[in-house]
Amino acid sequence: MATTTFRGLEVLISRQQIAERVAEMGEQITRDLKGEKLVMVGVLKGAAFFLTDLSRAIDADATFDFVAVKSYPKGSQTSSGAVQVIKDLDEPIEGKNVLIVEDILDTGLTLAYLRKIFLQQHPKSLRIATLLDKPSRRIEKIEADYVGFSVPNLFVIGYGMDFAERYRNLPDICLMPPDQPS
Ligand code: IMP
Ligand code: MG
To answer: Cβ contacts of residue 34 below 8 Å, gap of 6+?
Structure first.
């Protein structure tokens, strides 16, 4: 079978596959909410594309907040191990149903840290939705409640995900070509 490519990049997960899976995730999250309100917290910048699509697939009274964290040094394909909050929540989440929305659950350092600091605020519930999961890379013991796709240990770009801030606007999830100058 011929490999699908977009702008010369190998497509791992197509825009159609993403749309179908995001719709399914939205239905599942809607069912689990049982009519309650939701605060969706997007992890900038990578999860922005997923959050806007996922939120429109959720049939609930939803509001939005965003955090920005840094766990990768610029231009690196490996985690630095350190998590730094660059932008914190705008509103308190005490007593609220919170859904953290992330692009990739990789080593788990980012989400384990966010979960820890969010739980200190005593939300009513705290769940995690991640578009991609790379279980083989896990350092922290953490699982998402909703996973779009489980992927092998490959560096991916597109649909919000970057390499050195580039490629986020690719409509498909593509494989990062090896030895690409940043
Ligand atoms: P973790 O803290 O190691 O779980 O890292 C999660 C973050 O690393 C994700 O939100 C991404 O921003 C980034 N990341 C991990 N793997 C990839 C990848 O394959 N492509 C782009 N970014 C990635
Ligand atoms: Mg991210």
So the answer is: none
